[in-house]
Amino acid sequence: MSQTDIRQRDMRGLREGYSPAVRRFEIASIVGFALTMAWLAWRIAPRVIASPWLALCAFMVGFVAADFVSGFVHWAADTWGTPDWPIIGKALIRPFREHHVDQKEITRHDFIETNGNNCFISIAPAVGAALLPEGWFFGAAMGFALCLAIFGTNQFHKWSHMDEPPAAVRLLQRAGLILPPDHHAVHHSAPYAKYYCITVGWLNEALYRVRFFQALERIVSATTRLVPREDDIGKKAALAMAEPLPEEPAPEACSLTPEA
Ligand SMILES: [Zn+2]
Ligand SMILES: [Zn+2]
């Protein structure tokens, strides 16, 4: 595939897709997320105090799980669908298209635009964790860390694109505790098909080496006949880089031989 085959969407059209309705959706998501997380924190707090080491283990597992979820959601939104879809397309897919056309645009987003979507996707898992029975403390604490790290993910992602992030942020990036800019830059070379994890990026190299997302793409393509990244980089470039699918079985030929 040549770089000149890549056809991305028009930036102005993508920017205009950020409508007042999407903005209201983001504000509602942030409020809903904050209330749900407060409820979950109140549910797990007594056990965190009673078993701090167990809680710490659960928080760490939740943080790594968030890195995986960030990669999975990012891969799904980069690879499939279109901003023209109602609701999900406008609210969730459009920002991913915009981000590949102009990776600095995210640094101009305010708190609501940066974090609204991740709050939305974290509400259901946070409710699930809060409803877990008493004996499921590890799961509930893990769920708390997972949702908190997913909430932080796009903020970490935004910081990784800033020329001059705050000093404390730079320290965390250098320590590899939030997404480092040079690590994330690997994702931003066309055709944007690796290093999807954007919470901290710890899982990127392993998922790339085992061809995890390529395997998923083959499964989705084989079952749906969709071309990965067609909407993101244009059909020609997407077809050039897609692995060929097995031929569909030909319909059973009917015999034209006259009966004896
Ligand atoms: Zn991407
Ligand atoms: Zn980025």
Share of residues in strands: under 5%
Low-confidence runs: 253-260
How much helix, percentage-wise, in residues?
Answer: 55-70%
The helix/strand series, from N terminus to C terminus, equals: HHHHHHHHHHHH
Please give the alpha-carbon distance between the first and last residues.
Answer: 55 Å
Overall pLDDT confidence: 90
Overall radius of gyration: 22 Å
Bulk shape: globular
Major sheet: none
Bound small molecules, by name, code or SMILES, are: zinc ion
Please render the helix and strand layout as text:
Elements: H1 11-16, H2 20-50, H3 52-79, H4 88-101, H5 111-130, H6 137-161, H7 167-174, H8 181-185, H9 204-209, H10 212-224, H11 230-233, H12 235-241
Helix pairs in contact: 2-3, 2-5, 2-6, 3-6, 5-6
The chain binds zinc ion (2 copies).
State the gist of this model.
64% of the residues lie in helices and 0% in strands.
Kindly describe this structure.
The protein is mainly α and 260 residues long. It has one domain (9-240). It has 12 helices and no strands. α2 packs antiparallel against α3, α2 (20-50) packs across α5 (111-130) and α3 (52-79) crosses α6. The chain is globular, with a radius of gyration of 22 Å. The model is unreliable at 253-260 (pLDDT under 50). The chain binds zinc ion (2 copies). Residues 99, 103, 157, 161, 184, 188 line the site of one zinc ion.
